[in-house]
Task: structure prediction
Amino acid sequence: MKDFLVFIISGLMVICLMGCGESPTADKQAGITEKTNITSGDISISVTPTTDIPSSKQSAISVENSKSTPTYTIKPAQAGKVQADGKLKEDGGAYFLDDSPFNGEFIDHHDNGNKSVEGKFLNGKQEGVWTYFHKNGSRFRTGKYLDGRANGQWIIWRMDGSKWSEKNYVNGQLNGVEIRWHANGKKQSETDWNGGKVLSKKEWDELGSSKP
Result:
């Protein structure tokens, strides 16, 4: 009888251990824990090529299908009309629009909306007649550029419209006689230039008397 009781008790202990002794690994085997062994087949990534342009713009701009990696190349001189100085970038004496030397008309404005400058670019450099304006809209100065450098006669006016000076440039350097006037129209000075250097100078006061 004693041996029989020992047998019964041993059997109950085994059953209890089988039903109550699950380790934390049982939860993992049941899929309760977060999946950590993600493979490339579990993720799908979509990439839009940087050269894609909305369909509304494709009629004006020719674009490739961009199935391969986009590349960047140096563009030829770009022609057009620019309405803001911030759109052009200066590098090495030339002005660029979208990494291309700019060709065409250039216009900028003062904060009050009045035009501040108007001129043209050729291969990224200022060319031909350029005119600058005061904030009130009157002319400030005008003259010519050749290959990005002032060339020929330049005239400067005060805001009230009176002429302040006339000067001449050769390849960006002052040459010849520069004349300046007082606001009352009387001559203020005459300066003789050569290669950007002063050779001689005469001055007068507002009444026309020569200064020593």
About this structure: The radius of gyration is 41 Å. Residues 162-212 form one domain.
